[in-house]
């Protein structure tokens, strides 16, 4: 009996800590349905409001070839965290383009985490606490030890691939 109780408690703890992916909520700040918390790429690109801009922008974006060649030489086992809002115009433009750059780099999808925030730039359960998210989208690059190497906030200074290259060159 004691054994069964222990297993039940472990299962309950696992269910409480497991987060729902691609969670949809009504955002009072924008009075619409949005994604919140951890998302999959598929969840983001199929979310109706986001999808309408995602598909044409992704198809149209052509990363600079010379920058991409240089960038490919520098990428090792870094991690990228994308914090964005499905309601946000800059996110709707820059997230598809950023994915196009990552795809061209053959960046491993397992090394990318995607977090959707509400209209107040908050997520649930302290998911982005300590990340100092002021504007979205924010693309944060981490080295293989989990240290932040740099970030692109809201929009790139040059191009997404150019700003990524600057982040990676700082590391070298």
Protein architecture, described:
The chain is an alpha+beta fold. The chain has one domain: Glutaredoxin (3-Layer(aba) Sandwich). It is 42% helix and 20% strand. It has six helices and six strands. A six-stranded mixed beta sheet has the order 1-2-4-3-5-6. Helix 4 runs parallel beside helix 6 (160-171). It is globular. The termini are far apart.
Key terms for this structure?
172 residues; alpha+beta; Glutaredoxin; 6 helices; six-stranded mixed β-sheet; Thioredoxin family protein; Thioredoxin-like_sf; disordered N terminus; single chain
Top CATH class: Alpha Beta
Mean pLDDT: 90
The helix content is 40-55%
* Sheet having the most strands: 6 strands, mixed
Total strands: the figure is 6
Query: What would you report as the Rg, rounded to the nearest angstrom?
Result: 18 Å
Please list the strands of the largest sheet in the order they lie side by side. Answer: 1-2-4-3-5-6
Note the beta-strand portion.
Answer: 15-25%
Please report the number of helical segments.
6
Remind me, CATH topology? Glutaredoxin
Which residues form runs of ≥5 with pLDDT under 50? 2-17
Instruction: Using the 3D structure, state the CATH architecture.
Output: 3-Layer(aba) Sandwich
CATH homology superfamily name: Glutaredoxin
Order of helices and strands: HEEHHHEHEEEH
The global form is: globular
Task: Please describe the topology of this protein.
Layout: H1 2-17, E1 23-27, E2 32-39, H2 41-46, H3 48-60, H4 65-74, E3 79-84, H5 89-104, E4 112-116, E5 138-142, E6 148-153, H6 160-171
Parallel strand pairs: 3-4
Antiparallel strand pairs: 1-2, 2-4, 3-5, 5-6
Helix pairs in contact: 3-5, 4-6
